[in-house]
Amino acid sequence: MKIKFNDLSKAFQNDKQKFKKDFVKISQQGSFIFGNHLKDFEKNFAKYNKVKYCLGVSSGTDAIYIALRSLKLKKNDEVLVPSHTFIASILPAMALGLKIKFVDVDIKNFNLDKKDLLKKISKKTKVIIIVHLYGAAVNVEEIKRNIPKNIKIVEDCSQAHGAQIKGKKVGSVGDIGCFSFYPGKNLGAFGDGGAIITNNKNYYENMFLYRNWGSKKKYVHNSFGWNCRLDTLNAAFLNTKLKSLDKFNYKRIKVAQMYEKNIINKKILKPEIHLKGSHVYHLYVIMIKNRKRLINLLNKNNIPSIIHYPTPGHMHKVVKDYKNKITKNLPNTRKIKDKILSLPMHPFLKRNEVLKICKILNNYN
After folding, report:
1. Which of 151, 253, 313, 365 is buried most deeply by CB count within 10 Å?
2. Ordered structural domains, the chain, with CATH
3. DSSP per-residue letters across 168-234
4. What is the pLDDT of residue 1?
């Protein structure tokens, strides 16, 4: 049987009866938009992350866009973003006409390089988008201590639900935290979905209005807004899955530890192991020369692998065509782009499956 890169069907089976019950209840009520399950989820997700406010939205991309918009930035204000990330971390800043400056990444953990970040801050810098890539939590508090107080921090937590540094969950330390609930995430919906968390009441109220056409009362529109709501059904499903998030994150960590212990091929560079939940291993990413040859070997043995991400953020055509950007001095991004490879990672991987993957990797020469 082929090993699965991710196994969403198992996640469904884990809570199948509760999902069915919620589906029937909401269908009978007809409360598909702004139902009580959404309010419950927003309350529970805020509590889980130890913040005051949470807003369910339609996607992680919308979460970042709405977060940036709530900061009332001006066109050409400068935002810093990692060069190695999914394009959803970048497009919202482009949509708002902001000046984008790319920050290089740390080869050890693939997150933004803190030294390069500090070098690239200028008087024009208004926002830093910190991406907790692959599930590894960035020490946001440390960054906050070393940057001017007027610079806002938006955390992109789309791959790091539940990760934490010194007991503080990702998304709770910066000014605004943004999450994606795309099905393959550590906390995934049955389709697209997202959330925004913050402790700032003004940001929350601005984002609350924007999510629903600028309306607090039906047919009354006193401010500009859009339609980017999290539907009630997905909120109900996420409420159920939230209860298992820590348990499944723990299982991901155990899989990562098996990889760490059993991959002994010196040609393979393994990611830094993080302790105490600071990495929740949305992905387990290695680096290897001659990546294509290794992919072929894995395929022959029915082992899937994926490249996250083959094209650095600043090298996409749509970003290249965007005039308001700075892409200088990104040597580490160039080094990793042809070497990174994601191995199967999910809470339902069996020990014998992980050991099989490690055996193939160790035989690679």
Report:
1. 313
2. 8-242 (3.40.640.10), 245-363 (3.90.1150.10)
3. EETTSSSSEEEEE--TTSSS--SS--EEEEES-HHHHHHHHHHHBTT-SBTTB--S---B-BPPHHH
4. 67
